[in-house]
Design brief:
Blueprint: H1 3-26, E1 32-33, E2 45-49, H2 53-60, E3 66-69, E4 73-77, H3 85-100
Helix pairs in contact: 1-3
């Protein structure tokens, strides 16, 4: 596999991790995945949607690569060059803690 192929493979793996954790942890708490579910239709980010996304984004912004996308999106940026799996797990766990109340 070439260097660019390995980078893309890691990006897909990171976004798949976010999508799978969202399915188990967040969807039951009123979050939906707004990004395409198919890896070939998305880049290295996943948008999670919930009515209170603006407030959640403000609480999550420190230490994470997220931003608010009106009207109800939290965009989780996952650069395969700089983002690791443990960091991604921690970010999703932080989101889970916030939506759990």
């Amino acid at each position: 596999m070439s260097g660019i192929d390995r980078i893309r493979a890691k990006g897909v793996a990171l976004t798949e991790m976010v999508a799978e954790l969202a399915e188990h942890w967040l969807i039951p708490r009123g979050v939906r995945i707004a990004s395409p579910r198919e890896p070939e239709r998305r880049g290295s980010h996943v948008t999670l949607a919930r009515a209170d996304a603006a407030e959640l984004s403000q609480r999550l912004i420190e230490g994470m690569v997220i931003d608010f996308r009106p009207p109800d999106g939290i965009r989780v940026g996952l650069s395969p060059l700089t983002t690791g799996f443990a960091e991604t797990w921690r970010a999703m766990d932080a989101i889970r803690s916030l939506v759990a109340g």
